[in-house]
What does this fold into?
Amino acid sequence: MKLSIIVPVYNMAADQKLEYCLNSLVHQTIEDYEIIAVDDCSTDTSWDILRSYEKEYPEKFRAIHSEVNQKQGGAKNIGMEAARGEWIGFIDSDDWITPDFYERLIAKGEETGADMVGCDYHLTDEHSMKIGQVVHNNKPEQTGILNEEKYRSLILDGGSLVVKVYRREIVIDHPSRFPTGIFYEDNALANSWMLRAKHFEYIEEPLYYYYQHDTSTVHTINVKRCEDRMEAGRIMLREAKEYGYFKQYYPELEFTFATLFYVNTLFTYMQGVRPVRAGFVRRLGQEMLQNFPDFQRNRYYVERIGAEEKKLVQMQLASAFRFILYYKLLWGYRNLRRKLRSKK
It folds into this structure.
């Protein structure tokens, strides 16, 4: 079989989100493919919807029900175990793709000999095929036969997993599997997958629609999501050490860990979690320093992190309490100014 498309599903029945995704999959122009939709113990009618698609498209659609909620990583693992394709693709169950998405990506791979192929995507808040805000998922200079320079670039700017297809041997014929029970599971394995690839190609055109809505992972901030991001960072480091690329790509991994585990978690926590706990903020900084005590000197950190963020990070590492007080005063002042301007 040419292609297996793996779709983790949890409570996506509302507003026909799931149907919009599945309709884009069952009408793909590529031949010889299967859709493996894994219901992660949904409490809405998502499982019934999957069963109806399996009945309507028995030659290409398989619905699998997980008896235990394992989050997206666990559902993807179930799909990977069932997959028969030479190529493997993943899609979030609230997103959708152009009809020729997989045909074009796989054709690009087979024409060039690539074992990993990606493209760009849209950000959209409506169910349509109109082009929204385009996000460039990769860079042309990352393509071709991969060498150390390109691997470093991919660790730093690898792009989204769902906007790529992979040869089977990269993702399935290997012992690594997604962590279960957490979000941000892609971040845990992405580096290992990219470093197993030998040749990467990229279509600089948006063929994937990334749906923005209030219940999506990126728009939900709570302590559990922050802890999940931290755990994904820990697994990312364990993968690098276990598979022998930690020392070779130390600067890139240091920066990636610093942004994933620490910087992004710190500021999303401060913006979205109430009440703010000084203990959590303190432990976050302590673990960052335990893993990479000199991360503030990392050249990518120096180049890519803004001056204000650097100042706040330095303050947090010196005193969690002082950082929290300063941050609250700073954003309280900015919100007040914003309100006053809006009244004029």
